[in-house]
C-alpha cells in the first residue's frame, strides 16, 4: 500500500511539484492502480487460448518511393538536395 509519505517522496524524486492538497488524491489513485495490478496477477493465463492477433509477414520487396523534390518540398530547411536539421549537440 502506498502512503502519503511515499507520494511525497515519489514527487520529489520525479521533481514534480504537487501541493499538500493533492497528496491524498494521488495516494488513492496509486493504490487503485496497484489493486488493479493485483487483479491482473490473479488471472490464470496458463492454457488460455492466444489472442487472435498474429504476426503477418509479407515479402520485403522494393517499391517506388516519393521523388526527392516532393520530400524536399515538405522540409522546413534544405541544403544541397538534403533536409537540413538543427544540430543536436
Automatic annotation (TrEMBL):
HAMAP family membership: GatC
Name listed for the protein in its UniProt record: Aspartyl/glutamyl-tRNA(Asn/Gln) amidotransferase subunit C
GO molecular function, one term: transferase activity
Record's subunit section: Heterotrimer of A, B and C subunits.
Pfam families: GatC
Superkingdom of origin: Archaea
Keyword tags: ATP-binding, Ligase, Nucleotide-binding, Protein biosynthesis
Catalytic activity, reaction form: L-glutamyl-tRNA(Gln) + L-glutamine + ATP + H2O = L-glutaminyl-tRNA(Gln) + L-glutamate + ADP + phosphate + H(+); L-aspartyl-tRNA(Asn) + L-glutamine + ATP + H2O = L-asparaginyl-tRNA(Asn) + L-glutamate + ADP + phosphate + 2 H(+)
Enzyme Commission number(s) from the entry: 6.3.5.-
Family per record: Belongs to the GatC family.
Record has Cytoplasm as a keyword: no
Chain's role: Allows the formation of correctly charged Asn-tRNA(Asn) or Gln-tRNA(Gln) through the transamidation of misacylated Asp-tRNA(Asn) or Glu-tRNA(Gln) in organisms which lack either or both of asparaginyl-tRNA or glutaminyl-tRNA synthetases. The reaction takes place in the presence of glutamine and ATP through an activated phospho-Asp-tRNA(Asn) or phospho-Glu-tRNA(Gln).
One of the GO biological process terms: translation
Xref: InterPro entries: Asp/Glu-ADT_sf_sub_c, GatC
Amino acid at each position: 500500500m502506498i502512503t502519503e509519505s511515499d507520494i511525497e517522496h515519489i514527487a520529489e524524486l520525479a521533481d514534480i511539484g504537487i501541493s499538500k492538497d493533492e497528496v491524498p488524491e494521488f495516494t488513492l489513485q496509486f493504490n487503485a492502480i496497484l489493486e488493479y495490478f493485483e487483479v491482473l496477477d490473479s488471472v490464470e493465463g496458463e492454457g488460455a487460448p492466444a489472442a487472435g492477433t498474429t504476426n503477418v509477414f509479407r515479402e520485403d520487396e522494393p517499391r517506388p518511393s516519393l521523388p526527392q523534390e516532393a520530400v524536399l518540398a515538405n522540409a522546413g530547411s534544405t541544403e544541397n538536395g538534403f533536409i537540413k536539421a538543427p544540430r543536436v549537440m
